[in-house]
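User: My collaborator sent over this chain with a note saying "see what the structure looks like." That's all I know about it. Can you take a look?
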Amino acid sequence: MSEIWPTELRVSSDRKLLSVRFDNESAYDLPAEMLRVMSPSAEVQGHSPEQRKLKHGKKDVEIMKMEPVGNYAVRIVFDDMHDTGIFSWTYLAELGANKQAKWSEYLNELAEKGLSR
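Assistant: Without extra context I'll predict from the sequence alone. Here is the result:
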């Protein structure tokens, strides 16, 4: 996946979905909520797995804008003002390819902690 390049990044008109197409013909629709709660930022991921913070209450979050970061990533700015996650092409492809499993894990963790989306 390290050689993967996006051919299209499109935010839906309601700002709640990012559609990504890659040059290997894969395509994914990634909800803004999923991108926000799985942001690769230190605020969410911490500096080690033990420091990871479970984000919740982001069901209605929207994508405000996207900014390119070099040739390898995009910074997504959300309407809750989170803007520190740099989403590499590889990370976006990983989220898309593993969307169901990652989302199920997230929902299970929320349920275990008694939190809501």
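A starting point for your reply to your collaborator: The radius of gyration is 14 Å.
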